[in-house]
Structure formats: structure tokens, C-alpha cells
Amino acid sequence: MIRDNRNLIPVFMAVLLHVVIFGSMIVAFDFARPKPFTPLTVQATLVQETPETKPLPLPVQEPEPEPETVIEEPEPEPEPEPEPDNSAELLRQAEEEKRRQDALLEEKRLEELRKKEEADRIQREREEEERKRREEEDKERQRVEAERKRQEDIRRQREENERLRRELEAEQRQAEIDAEARRMAAENSPEMARYQYAIQNQIQRNWAMPASVTPDTECVVRVRQTRTGDVLSVNIVSCNGDDAVRRSVEAAIRKASPLPLPQNPDLFRSDLRITLRPDL
Q: What is the pTM of this model?
């Protein structure tokens, strides 16, 4: 393919096209122009009869020649200056336009992708919220059911505890009644008298009476002991003796520990009330 660096072919074709157009216009104008009408002139001569005379020939008037149509040749257009080669600029512009279009397409694709991702995110959030809502509802149902069962268990347990408490109280009351009956029976039994005498006699043996003791001296003492007879505490309730008598009484009781135990366990008392007198 011939490369026309100076654009001569387009110029030549343009000039030729203009020549053809002007020629066509001139021909059309010539055919359209009205032709001049030349009337025929008739000249007549009155001839009198005269001796025969040959008439003179009439002059023949020739028609005026038509003016010659002058076809003006169009002045040749000046040869245009060769246009600068802007193919590189056009290529650059085309590439730039392509890049712009590509950028617009990419931007549109990214926008659609962003919208899709946003829609997917919203959908996921809705699904997650729905899942959490269902889980919360399930947990609430389970919590209500568990609370109902717990309250039911508490109610049953309270009823059971109340029943056991009533039974235990009844048993305790019965045991207390039985024990009191046994104690009352033991208080008046010979065994109780022997048990009290054994304790009184053992303390009396360990009482070192001071010189201030008189025949009418009497001391009432409260003694607490263990199940094995060991003395825990000694409290003098009343005593008409002096301090030396009081100290001697307390020393005698502690020295007598452990106190004698009864053969019958029902006769045992952890709290004893003992009366000491010199004549016992």
C-alpha cells in the first residue's frame, strides 16, 4: 500500500472534484439561459405596372449570430499546504480515550462489585441477626423451662423438707417426752440417790476445810461436767462462808474430777447442783 506522507492524493481528488462541479454548473447554466428571439422582417414594395421591368432582388437579412458562450475556466485553487503529520497525536488521543473508557468501565465494574458486596454484607448481617434472634428465643425458652423446673423442684423439695421437719419435730417431741418421763422416774429412783451420794461423797473427801468453816456453813455450787465426768466449770451460787471457804470448795470439786458416773445413762446430768456442808 502506497503511503502518502504529504496527502497529495486527497488534494488532487479534491481539485478534480471541484473542476467537475464547476463544469457541470456552467453547462447547466448555458442550457437554462433563454435564447434571443429574432423576428423575421418582411419588407413589401408597392409595384406599379410598368413596362416590364425585372424586380430587384430583396436583400436577405441574415440572422444575428448568437453570442458565443464563454466558459470561464475556474481558477485553479492554490495547492493546500501539506497538513502536519498528526497521526501520533491522534494515536495518543485514541489511546487516552481508550484508557478513559477502560477506566470508566473499571470504575463501573468496581461500583457494581461494591454494590454486590454491600448487598451480600447486608444479607449476611440480616441472616446473622435472624440466627441470633432464633438462638435468643431458644435460650429464652430453655431458660423459662429450666426456671419452671427449678421452681417445681424447689416446691417439691420444700414440701419434702416440711414433711421431714414435721416428722423430725414429732420424733424430737416424742423423744423429749420419753426422756422427761425417764428423768422424772430416775429422779425418784434409788439409783439417782446413789449417784448423787457418790458425787457428794467424792467431793467431800477432797474438801480441805479451812479454820473459818463453822457448823452452819453451807455452799451451793453449780458444776458442769463432760460425759466422762471431767469438770468443766465451777460456779458458787451461794455460800455463807468467807473467801477461804469459797476457795476450798472450788478446789475440792476440781480435785474430785473426774466425778463418778451413773450405771444408768439416763441418770447422767451435765449440769449438777451440789450443796456442801461440814456435817455431810
A: 0.37
